[in-house]
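Here is one chain, start to finish.
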Amino acid sequence: MNTMKTFCKVKGAYGGEFVEKEIPHCGDDQVLIKVVATSICGTDVHIYQWDDWAQSRIPVPQTMGHEFVGKIVEVGKFVSGYSVGETVAAETHIVCNTCEFCMNNQMHICEQTKVLGVDIDGAFAEYIAIPAQNAIKVNPKKAPEFLSILEPLGNAVHTINSTSVKDKTVAIVGCGPIGLMAIDVAKAYGAKAVYALEVNEYRLHKAIELGADAIINPLKENAVKKIMELTNHKGVDVVCEMSGKDSAIIEAFKYIKAGGHYAMLGVPATHVTLNIATDIVFKGITIAGITGRRMFETWDQVSQLVDADRLHLDKIVTHKINFEEIEEGIHLMESGNCGKVVVLMEGVNNE
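Its structure:
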């Protein structure tokens, strides 16, 4: 049998469809992977909804999905260091290896980056072929639902590690799945206190489960006033902006401490107007733009955390579903009443 089931963006409209496609050819510098588990990302939801960003970026038709774990079933003839049967996750940014940034250990901002499931066919499929360079060996003893979320976990680790959070106060703004992961990572790295800001009550409860020292719903209380009270009116040392909400981005500049560190992962839909003089220059803060994961330093950090059982991935993965239920999973993500939703390709064991 040379075909496989995939879930694709077939047309420029809300939704997606299951499509039979040929199993991809394993190129000379690639590995062919049988997907064991794949998780649903907010990016997949944007593509499914066919919002303005998706319309400007996504070629149609295309297989969706990019967060996954699987087993190697074929190795290209020029590939060394990988064997059939090994368990791998994937660095989803396919880079050129020749531009200025790749040559200077900044592959995460390669100017020719192509992203799985965004620019090229992705992982909502039974098989996927990727450059061997992008195949990350992972611990096969860990549950596949946890290994499938290492890529977004890398976003959280990259964000937290853009500065040292040890013995510092940290505000996590936006507690979607990556924000929840960031709470867990910040605590693992020794943050003195972590404050979670989120408007969804389900996710605020998850933040408490993951060890947040205080939760703040900006729709119900003044976030600036609350954080200043919690920090002896100094503000937080570190802000990790995960929401991409204009008002949340602006507000965080009011409660970050002078000399603080502002890590920005969330992507706003529109331009944001800031008071650069008062909120940035005169406060002497540092702003770090976070994209993807540092290749491949972040992956080493992720592996260390996971292998040492320093995280609580069982609290972050809230739903496991079958491949046939993937649209239900996307709708669950749309509701916001979930953590990570993982698709187990061989089915969920309900025993």
